[in-house]
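Homework help thread (please don't just give me the answer)

Our assignment gives two proteins as sequence + structure token strings and asks us to describe the second one. The first is just a warm-up. Here they are:
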Amino acid sequence: MAIRHDSPSGLTRRDVLAGGAALGLALTATGRARAAALDLEAARREGKVVVYNNWQPNGIEPLLQRFREAVPGIQTEQIRLGSNPLIERFQTEFTAGRHLCDMLITFPDKRVYEGMEQGWMTQWQPPELGNFPSEINDKDMLFTLQHARECIIWNRNLVRPADAPKEWVDLFDPKWKGRVGMNPPWRSVSIQQIVAYWEDLGIPDSAEKLKANEVRFFEGSGGIIQAVVRGDVRVAELTDLPLNPLLEDGAPIGFIYPKSGTTLSANRAFVAAKAPHPNAAKVFMNWLMTAEGQVHLQNYCGLSVTRKGAPPLSKLPGTAQLAKVVDGEKILTPARQKAIVDKWRSVYGIR
């Protein structure tokens, strides 16, 4: 059955973060001990770690602050972009010999797997790896730390329950003309995956149909959900990256994972092979994989984590509860990805 939510209740985000902070204090010593199994002194001599990411914007700095508290002596810098421009940036810098990134985490596409063969990534085994399912590890280079799913959201103050969308085709309903939003597919791999899934469901020409419906584009999941909260649009397609934190805050957001199915995106991380601060990068990634780090990663960045025994998200259903989930990477072939991006750019006049 479709999973739907119209009225968030229960713990507030403040309660959840307080609980996470308490757990973080309890586990800080453990986190430090595990990091010490790496070359922590070398990491502190390096002094900082530079992280390329596509995490929920409001949660990045609190997450990094938790790391700095757990592992003093290592400062943090970060670059946040959508998955497509983030991969493009790293690829361009690597090709030019400008090695600025220490660790990257994003939703990958063909370029990331080609980069694995071209020397983008350090091959290593984080000390925490034994606490994860074996399938999160790709050749001891690329590690799945989180999962995201695609959904439909709406403003509960502006959309009556009877009018709330139930399926993907509802996004094309003329009643939402000028009031439907999404992240542009040329910006995000996860959006390219859901467009491919729409095609598989028998929804062709989604670019043209949404243009006719005067879709409004916003940058990233954070921009999308804020536009819905403000009432700039009434309904939207969303990668559920920022959804759980805003539901905890009591935002008037309804959501549904359609019964016809949705796509799953794996947020994968690697330590750059030519990282300027390689020891700090390993300490940081390993901390993200500790019980402490996984709690903070989930609480602040809004996606379910992959460590065995990790607590579930507070407001969203687990992936196993959804009616149908398809691995987006398996349906988005390189040729299909190019065709989707080219099509949407052409329809919307984007070069």
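The one we have to describe:
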Amino acid sequence: MTKKKFIALTAFLSAFLIAVPFACNEKLAETKYTVNSDKISSPVKIAFLSDVHNTLYGRDMSELIGSVDRFMPDIVIFGGDLFDSQWEEANSQLLAKSLAKKYPCYYALGNHEFKYGAQDRVRNGAPSLGLNLLTLENNISDMDIKGNRIRIIGIDGTFFDDQYKSACDAVSDDVFSIFVYHYPEEFPEISKKGFDLTLSGHAHGGQWRFPPLLPNGVFSPGEGFFPKYTSGVYIENGSEMIVSRGLQRCPRDLVIPRIFNRPEVVFITLEP
């Protein structure tokens, strides 16, 4: 090997060894958004957790719980895939139970609760953890937070027509509506229904992100290759959607690492 080739190879390997840990960094990120609305008179703080998949975050889930506690939310919303392969998974149960002791917690199912046939056990067990489960039987929850009328609407993790119709019928001009729906790829249709804010997950940030070349990632389970709705804020037809990159990280369920795609907990402040 010539000296030039050796230097070039050494430089490449050095750059690779430096870049890989940075690119595959799966340390928890905290992402904050502000949503403004004429229906809001004073700030309301929401912690949004999606696609936990029973992933461990510190002893007794202390890292994730501590992150939420520092934000001091008024409500906590779980956006689906809280559980991975079975209802009895300890990490997700511990997380939900701990947060529900401090904050009102709302939970809409994702595809994984159905994928592993755990939906009935989830529905039956969620109240014991302190979770307010958003399903067809009880998919609308009204509350007053600091003088603001807030309506949380959710449906199960598959697109049931009867649940969707019930959710759309719950939209009101004088109440700020939050629609919790796991699948962001449905936003072009959902945005026409008048929801003030939609919260979604499922896309896992596109798994491999290469900004600025592929800022939305390489693949989403709902949109396939080169997806559009994977992370951040989207506005269509006067309606706003926030998509979480999710909290699953290797080796939970997938052995494919996240690249330039840190798992995140999302903090939202509703402002006048």
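TA reply:
I won't write it for you, but here's a hint about the kind of observation we're looking for: The first helix runs from residue 3 to 23.
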